[in-house]
């Protein structure tokens, strides 16, 4: 019922609303979804506004839940792999919520998306990317792809790193949320429901201000954001070269 209500709002009211009004609806819908799934959000650090202007949110990627966890605090438009556009029902929601789609198998597509991403940021948007470009089990941090950080340089945007991890109510690692490997969406949903209760922890680290994003290379921005997220997740340091 919650999904159907979201589809109805997206198909009727959403296109006619201002961005601030859309942000409020998206935040409420995301919070309600997490409540239905018995997932509590725990926030560390200081989040920016509900829809901070000219801000690129970057986070590690564990689950399809990441989008709704982030949107329950700071609402963003996301950059996602093009395959999500074809998901039944969910694809319609994601597409009509303003998501930009990228073909991960086409290196040249990053240039097109960067232009659209920079334009959205310059127009006052809050955008979000997962620089790992795939999901992990949450116990490690994959190398970041630096290509989409170029948009933040072009737009002189603030870069806001956010570390995500899923825990049991007792504070231990929770594997149920991980949407990695050969796990299907249905299997993932069943694992989440079977967990009965879960905590998603969002750690907002110090933002990288526009002045610094304009002067740094996309590789430097990628490395700085990754270091901040790695430290927030309390993972050991290791030398990583940012990829395109």
UniProtKB/TrEMBL annotation:
Signal peptide: none annotated. GO terms for molecular function: acyltransferase activity. InterPro entries: AGP_acyltrans, Plipid/glycerol_acylTrfase. Pfam families: Acyltransferase. It is an enzyme of class 2 (transferase). Pathway: Lipid metabolism; Phospholipid metabolism; CDP-diacylglycerol biosynthesis; CDP-diacylglycerol from sn-glycerol 3-phosphate: step 2/3. Its EC number is 2.3.1.51. The keyword Transport does not apply. Keywords: Acyltransferase, Lipid biosynthesis, Lipid metabolism, Phospholipid biosynthesis, Phospholipid metabolism, Transferase. It catalyses: a 1-acyl-sn-glycero-3-phosphate + an acyl-CoA = a 1,2-diacyl-sn-glycero-3-phosphate + CoA. Residues 55-167 form the Phospholipid/glycerol acyltransferase domain. CDD domains: LPLAT_AGPAT-like. The keyword Calcium does not apply. The HXXXXD motif is essential for acyltransferase activity and may constitute the binding site for the phosphate moiety of the glycerol-3-phosphate. Belongs to the 1-acyl-sn-glycerol-3-phosphate acyltransferase family. NCBIfam families: AGP_acyltrn. This is 1-acyl-sn-glycerol-3-phosphate acyltransferase. The lineage of its organism: Bacteria, Pseudomonadati, Pseudomonadota, Betaproteobacteria, Neisseriales.
């Amino acid at each position: 019922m919650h999904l159907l209500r979201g589809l109805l709002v997206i198909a009727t009211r959403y296109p006619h609303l201002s961005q601030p009004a859309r942000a409020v609806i998206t935040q409420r819908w995301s919070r309600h979804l997490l409540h239905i799934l018995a997932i509590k959000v725990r926030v560390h650090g200081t989040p920016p506004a509900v829809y901070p202007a000219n801000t690129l949110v970057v986070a590690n990627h564990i689950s399809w839940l990441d989008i709704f966890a982030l949107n329950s605090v700071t609402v963003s438009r996301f950059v996602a792999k093009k395959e999500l556009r074809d998901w039944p029902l969910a694809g319609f929601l994601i597409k009509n919520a303003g998501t930009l789609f990228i073909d991960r198998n086409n290196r040249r597509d990053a240039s097109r998306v960067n232009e659209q991403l920079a334009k959205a940021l310059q127009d006052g948007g809050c955008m979000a990317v997962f620089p790992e470009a795939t999901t992990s089990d949450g116990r490690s941090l994959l190398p970041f792809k630096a290509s989409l950080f170029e948009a933040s340089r072009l737009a002189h945007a603030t870069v806001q790193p956010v570390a995500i991890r899923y825990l049991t109510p007792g504070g231990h690692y929770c594997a149920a949320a991980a949407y990695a490997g050969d796990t299907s969406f249905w299997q993932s949903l069943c694992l989440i429901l079977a967990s009965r209760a879960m905590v998603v922890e969002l750690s907002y680290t110090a933002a990288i201000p526009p002045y610094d994003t304009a002067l740094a290379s996309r590789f430097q921005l990628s490395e700085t954001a990754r270091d901040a997220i790695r430290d927030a997740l309390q993972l050991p340091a290791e030398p990583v070269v940012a990829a395109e």
